[in-house]
Amino acid sequence: MIRATELKKEDVSQKKFVNLKQHDDPAFSMQCRADLERAVYLGNSEHQKVKIIFETTQGTMVTDTTVWNLTENYIILKGNTDIPIRAIHRIEFFE
User: Which of 74, 51, 72, 55 is nearest to 16 (CA)?
Assistant: First the structure.
């Protein structure tokens, strides 16, 4: 289990992100992309939040938020905040 510092989604834009080497693995990247696409669907259709665990220069962070959009390199959160996909460790879904 990854230990992470909780962060309000409003504070995400103040962080500097770190690219994770695990994104160089095609299997990891495909799974991450599939999870992000599911998060966008849930965010737009059901307004469901997800837990995003990501890496910054200050360490591993986690935030609970709604994912509104997905580009090739970023996820867009509610409030027009973005996180680079290469900084994301994983997405956790609330069941």
Answer: 55
